Amino acid sequence: MTADRRPQRDPRHPDEHFEPYELDASIPWPLLGIAVALGVWGAATLFDTRRHEERAQVERIEDTRLATGQAVEPGHALFEASCATCHQSNGLGIRRAVPPLAGSPFVQHGPELVANIMLRGIDGPIRVNDALYDGHMPSFASVFTDVEVAELASYVAARWGENDRVLEAAEAAELRGRVSDLGSFRGGAGVAEDTGLALGDQPPFASGTLQPVAPEISALIFEGRGGQWSCASCHGDLGQGRENTPRLAGLPADYIRKQLHDFAAGRRLNESMAVVVAELTDEEKQALGAYYSGLRVPSNARPDLGGDLERGEQLAREGDWSLTVPSCFSCHGPSGFGVAPEFPPLAAQHAAYTASQLAAWAGGQRTNSSLDLMEHISSALSAADRRSVADYLASLPPVPAGTGDTLAAQGEDR
Amino acid sequence: MSHETEKDARAKPTNPRKGRYVKHLIYAGGATLILAATGALLYESGLIPGLERPDQTVASGYFQAPGNDQIPDSPFGESVRRGQAIFMNTATNASDHVGNGLSCANCHLGEGRQPYSAPMWAAWGRYPQYRAKNDQINTMEDRVMGCFTFSMNAQHSVSGEPPPHGDDIYRDLQSYFYWLASGAPNNTEMEGGGFGNVPKTELGYSPERGQEVFAANCAVCHAGDGQGQQDLNGRYVFPPLWGPNSYNWGAGMARINTAAAFIQNNMPLSQPGTLTDQEAWDVAAYINSFERPKDARQGDMTIEETRQLFHDGDDIYYGQEVNGVLLGVGTPDPERPVGAPE
């Protein structure tokens, strides 16, 4: 602020020797006030965000508690959340795809068989109420606690099998221990054989021919080549992945091959992967894809980003049309099992990985989605939404890795 | 500040009042900023009681149908839920009357809520209505019966026909539509109703051009052969667009103008409105230039008689030759009804 405190002279003859100078002028207090207020605001916002995350965690715990016990009808909420996407709220399933629970002899046998199937999953043809189904049901062993298994199985058996026996959590725990190493039931015939129960005429199970892994591919996976990392060193011995390293087990072979190509071509940016894929031939990429697509591994993914699971479930199952975001499942298949080869399975993928990929699409570091579908969708989602949906998807059971041609192999028309 | 002072300030830049004026301005601005920040903070933290976060779903300018969490717990609510189950999973919940791989929800997106995807909240108040299609007054039940006859291709279903009049399927579907239209005006054309329109283009439409549009924008989901894609259990994730598992020649979607409007306003999923008018017309022509189940009304008539009676003047390839093949013959009848136990 400049001013002239000396007596006014004739303005027509200004003082030739005048030098401009500055008066003492303190910063006005309101400006200081504004600065302080903005600082307080920023700090409070930081604090507020953290509190939101804490609250989300509390809500999640409450949700789980509600779903596992305190619901009006034990098992109902859990059924709606975990079973209804395939078997439907009315238990009628999907024609030619998902067997009904209503009137099913498997359900009528009671909660123990239902729990057994939930824990092991089914992989093979199955006949229910005179209709044949392909039979790909995931194992829920990594998803449900013993209490949840017991309540769900009792609920399903009572509602659709008219079997009133109530399975106790201790029985579910005992069952879990007994079947943990048995793998999936080999179709309806496998269920009948393993349990000795009468389940009507079940189609025979045609065991898939397991391709042996070539020694050089095995070396790539477990030892690496030329001083490079092996696949297993990051993705785990069974392709289960962890945190920001994706689960590979059960992903379609063609999808994995395409991603390896895209790393090489720079459509996906990841320094480690760029180094590793540089040395791979097309045949090796294909063979690696085939290897991981056939792996069946329990999920070790957990919702650990503090996202809002309810919002995540909404995005996955219904989408948010106000954001022009369709549901994840409308392309990646009901339950997030994927539609090969363009739409990979999302279920049981690690939350940190899913969220980071969504962020990479939104930020332009990943550009390999057909029609830029994922770029658009990811950009429309807020960071909180991305965490929420990633957390929800991590809570799902893994896709049952299967050949998908078990029915074709035995020449039966569905 | 008065007008005069402002003028003074401009006339004499050295006027000390100007400094005060600017100072006041800064103070006022600062105070506003503090108020805004405090307000935002209170709002964010939810300390202001009763002030909820704005509901994002109300952002669009269209009618807002209620969400699923608002379905009442009552006998009526039960019916709404059954209706919604039929709507979403028609082949299972109306199994005897669905002769293809489609559901209502394939064309009525967002569970029947999406604007320009023929939302049910807009359709509900439009019936009874005279329709030239069958030259009579149509109730909602008549209209839905038409959907089963043509879009769901009931002729190849287990029963071979749509649900009979008075069936519970209609009762529950109508409960669902009525509930979706809660608060909607009656007998009024609503913004976002129907599929919309795509203006005709100078070039007209061409399946040849449409083939390229299809390959670039549609094939990733609906597959290169248009037969849709299923998940590992054989459940349709992307519906078939032509061939034996799609809608028959009598369906509205078989008309190129209807398909063009649906496509432009809804496809590709998550990117509506990205195709030009020309692309929408062309790709609709391409999709509807393949054989599909025969028109359910054909009966003993020839294709030409059926064309004259039901398709004359429409934008449809029915009864015409495309690439040397007469369309409208229909895909072969299935060996046994679709969905019948083996």
UniProtKB/TrEMBL annotation, chain A:
SUPFAM superfamilies: Cytochrome c (SSF46626). Keywords: Heme, Iron, Metal-binding. It comes from the Bacteria. Gene3D superfamilies: Cytochrome c-like domain. Residues 70-160, 213-296, 307-397 form the Cytochrome c domain. GO terms for molecular function: electron transfer activity; heme binding; metal ion binding. PANTHER family: BLL4483 PROTEIN, CBB3-TYPE CYTOCHROME C OXIDASE SUBUNIT FIXP. This is Cytochrome c553. It comes from Pelagibacterium luteolum.
Automatic annotation (TrEMBL), chain B:
Residues 205-291 form the Cytochrome c domain. One of its GO terms (molecular function) is metal ion binding. The chain crosses the membrane at residues 21-43. It comes from Pelagibacterium luteolum. Keywords: Heme, Iron, Membrane, Metal-binding, Transmembrane, Transmembrane helix. The keyword Transmembrane helix applies. It comes from the Bacteria. This is Cytochrome c. InterPro entries: Cyt_c-like_dom, Cyt_c-like_dom_sf, Cytochrome_c-type_DH. The keyword Transmembrane applies.
